[in-house]
Design a protein that fits this description.
By secondary structure, this protein is α+β, with helices and mostly antiparallel strands. The two termini are 37 Å apart. The strands form 4 sheets. Strands 7, 8, 9, 11, 15, 16, 18 and 19 form an 8-stranded mixed beta sheet that branches. Strands 1-2-3-4-5-13-12 form a 7-stranded mixed beta sheet, with helices on both faces. It has one domain: tRNA-splicing ligase RtcB (Alpha-Beta Complex), CATH 3.90.1860. Keywords: GTP-binding, Ligase, Manganese, Metal-binding, Nucleotide-binding, RNA repair.
Length: 477
């Protein structure tokens, strides 16, 4: 497939065949030279054929092959004439990242790191199908699906400031639980407050380097500060909503006369009954995920106080931000010089709104939206900030992580004969995990170089570096 460089950090797939817009891949020349993502590039081109797509079908530097849309994909569709697609959101709806900063320094945590990792592992359920101590009645689950993170805070699991510093205030108000299947509801009753499996994690880290002092200060970050970063989503409920929606959409799309290059791009017109139904169901899963991460952060706060024998004031843990990916949002963007209402699909991509945007919480509105980019468990994670260039070029979007380079099967093969936990311990990183193959599948070698990914979006100007976080304790599902 032809790739043309248009800037040092962006390459274009020209329109061919049924493509309505070009494809645009954000990567630097080094990443372009090493590119092996032929299937993902094809998916970028396939998305460009969908009705109502605007400007370009995009992919971020953490791009890799996904279901229908590539992971790392961004596409905006006209709200009146475009489509919405479950494949453009993904199975783990609102799989997102939450960062909290503490008043602690590394030297206060390092001596008790062993006890801390064990306590976090015991207090936060992990693994495939894991269930927590919180069991929901159907009535309470309906409240979670409508209210999101606000529900958890009202139950005493967190602080109102947590909700304020969460994307969309931790709630999409278009959620409608009546459109969700009984099976999805059943799966949601027992998994709230659980981390999950695969690439989900909770990580205690240290602010290793500050790149933008003024923005870091606005975010409440400083060098050598201990942080908590967690990554989880909507668990089995979100998976079931996606599965149910795809089963319906695969039949529904045949009635629309849309020629799809891939059946995994099954979709509905946004303004149709089918489109509204999916959007309302997806919003329920997004709200569940925000409630889930709110509870996980609350459990982490309690665990720190328990292990260190300190109170909330001494811990001084405050939420920096919670950002989601795997989501479709109704937003207003400038297209062709005119404001346009669009549906932005961000699948393995995150929002990167510029300073002054009204959707950013008041705390950060003047500096821009915080962006949280986790790396692999053996390297680093980054905090970035949104920019006007992202608003102009990517519908306010940037990357979401390092991105896989090895399949889980290939990673397991490469890890044979290695003790990944000992390799991490040699770097000063203690890890606890569930599942025989988790560490092998999630080893650092399975991911792209996070520094290269972040340098690309920073160089492209679609987000700017603020701080780097170094892990010291990790729990994995």
């Amino acid at each position: 497939m032809e790739l043309k460089p248009i800037t040092p950090y962006c390459y274009e797939i020209p329109c061919t065949g049924n493509m309505r817009v070009p494809g645009r891949i954000f990567m630097n020349h080094r990443m372009a030279a090493q590119l092996t993502e032929a299937e993902a590039l094809k998916q970028v081109a396939n998305v460009a054929t969908l009705p109502g797509i605007l400007t370009a079908s995009m992919a971020m530097p953490d791009m890799h092959w996904g279901y229908g849309f590539p992971i790392g994909g961004v596409a905006a569709f006209d709200w009146n004439d475009g489509v919405i697609s479950p494949g453009g959101v993904g199975y783990d709806i609102n799989c997102g990242v939450r960062l909290a900063a503490t008043g602690l320094r590394e030297m206060e945590v390092r001596p008790i790191a062993g006890r801390l990792v064990q306590a976090l592992f015991e207090n936060i359920p992990t693994g495939v199908g894991s269930t927590g101590s919180l069991k929901l009645s159907l009535k309470e689950e309906m409240k979670v699906l409508r209210e999101g993170g606000r529900w958890a805070v009202r139950q005493g699991m967190g602080d109102p400031s947590d909700v304020e510093c969460t994307e969309d205030g931790g709630c999409m108000d278009v959620a409608d639980p009546s459109v969700i299947s009984e099976r999805a509801l059943e799966r949601g009753t027992k998994q709230l407050g659980t981390l999950g499996s695969g690439n989900h994690f909770l990580e205690v880290g240290v602010v290793d380097e500050i790149f933008d002092e003024a923005t870091a200060t606005a975010f409440g970050l400083s060098e050598n500060q201990v942080t908590v970063l967690l990554h989880s989503g909507s668990r089995g409920l979100g998976y079931q909503i996606c599965d149910d929606s795809l089963a319906f959409m695969n039949k529904h799309v045949k009635t629309l006369g849309i020629a799809l290059p891939d059946r995994q791009l099954a979709c509905a017109m946004i303004r149709s009954e089918a489109g509204h139904r999916y959007f309302a169901a997806m919003a329920c899963a997004a709200n569940y995920a925000w409630a889930n991460r709110q509870i996980l952060l609350h459990r982490a706060r309690e665990t720190f106080q328990q292990v260190l024998g300190i109170g909330p004031r001494e811990l001084a843990m405050h939420q920096v931000y919670d950002i989601c990916h795997n989501i479709a949002k109704r937003e207003t963007h400038t297209v062709g010089g005119q404001p346009r209402t669009v549906c932005v699909h961000r699948k393995g991509a995150t929002r990167a709104f510029a300073p002054g945007h009204p959707a950013i919480c008041e705390t950060y509105r003047q500096v821009g939206q915080p962006i949280l980019i986790p790396g692999d468990m053996g390297t680093a994670s980054y905090v970035l900030v949104g920019t006007q260039k992202a608003m102009d070029e990517t519908f306010g979007s940037t990357c979401h992580g390092a991105g896989r380079v090895l399949s889980r099967k290939a990673a397991k093969k490469k890890s044979k004969g290695r003790a990944i936990h000992r390799e991490l311990a040699d770097k000063g990183i203690l890890v606890k995990w569930t599942g025989r193959s988790t560490l092998a599948e999630e080893m650092p070698d399975a991911y792209k170089d996070i520094d290269q990914v972040v340098e690309t979006v920073h160089g492209a100007g679609i987000s700017k570096k603020v701080a780097r976080l170094r892990p010291i304790v990790v729990i994995k599902g």
